[in-house]
């Protein structure tokens, strides 16, 4: 666990004034991957002046009705609940030990399938962001079977921050937004500029395309808006990167420019993807070694 940290009030006030993140949902299955995301989320929440809601979904043990006594089923359920509550207490103790001014942490326990219950919670309106762990780059298990994190990213009603296993929180100095030059991009960029202001970070907006695609599809008025944004905002810059593979192009940019967080727009509708069977956001979740934030507009 990191050394005790005490946030400075002025920074927290600035963050609180410009950020809409008040409540971060941290789903956990109490695995090392989830615990790593929990530690990252604590420091992220500290900077934002946000609170954390720890959430665990459990499933009742499947039994044949009429054969297994109901009392036995209840006992199994109670054991799961008790075990989860003990884990919650251990997490809360870590917060008290690590921070002089502990991050407010609430706990929530609910029966159901993890992905479905997390998405349902995101629709309540009181969750501003979800932070989840992922096995990260080149995880064969996640490639073959997917993960709860990638399913939540594709369906949640609020931004989702995926934290690869082993990534520790560092000051966010450079955010990369993968843009496809859509109208919704400007909404995402507007949110990112708020973060950039309070984190003292810069925002790179990169579009990956083949050499012949860029100017043929980009409307002149759209280009004028991009140019105006660059002139008005010192911390934002747009890049056009030639590559036939979106993921490879983004990875090269990340490696060459010390990116602390990659940001993407996740569509909640069927789209024709250049990655065919998986969305770009899902692909980057599986390939990235830096935290990935997915917005939904």
The overall strand count is 10
Largest sheet: 10 strands, mixed
Q: How much of the sequence is in beta strands?
A: 15-25%
- The CATH homologous superfamily of the largest domain is termed HUPs
CATH architecture term of the largest domain? 3-Layer(aba) Sandwich
Query: Total domains, how many?
Result: 2
Q: Figure out the total of helices.
A: 11
Structural class: alpha/beta
Ends distance: 36 Å
- Helical residue percent? 40-55%
Quick one: CATH class of the largest domain?
Alpha Beta
Uncertain stretches of 5 or more adjacent residues: 2-18, 270-278
Global geometry: elongated
For the largest beta sheet, what order do the strands appear in spatially?
3-2-1-4-5-10-9-6-7-8
Alpha-carbon Rg, integer: 21 Å
Average pLDDT, rounded to a whole number, is 80
Query: What's the helix-strand series?
Result: HEHEHEHEHHEEHEHHEHEHE
What is the CATH fold-level name of the largest domain?
Rossmann fold
Molecular structure report:
This protein has 2 domains: 9-164, 3-Layer(aba) Sandwich (Rossmann fold), CATH 3.40.50.620; 174-295, HUPs (Rossmann fold). Strands 3-2-1-4-5-10-9-6-7-8 form a 10-stranded mixed β-sheet, with helices on both faces. 44% of the residues lie in helices and 20% in strands. Residues 2-18 and 270-278 have low confidence and may be disordered. It is built from 11 helices and 10 strands. The longest helix has 29 residues, at 70-98. The chain has helices spanning 9-18, 32-48, 70-98, 114-122, 140-145, 148-155, 185-199, 214-217, 220-232, 246-257, 280-287; strands at residues 23-27, 51-58, 105-111, 129-134, 160-164, 174-178, 202-209, 236-242, 261-265, 292-295. With 297 residues, the protein is α/β, with parallel strands linked by helices.
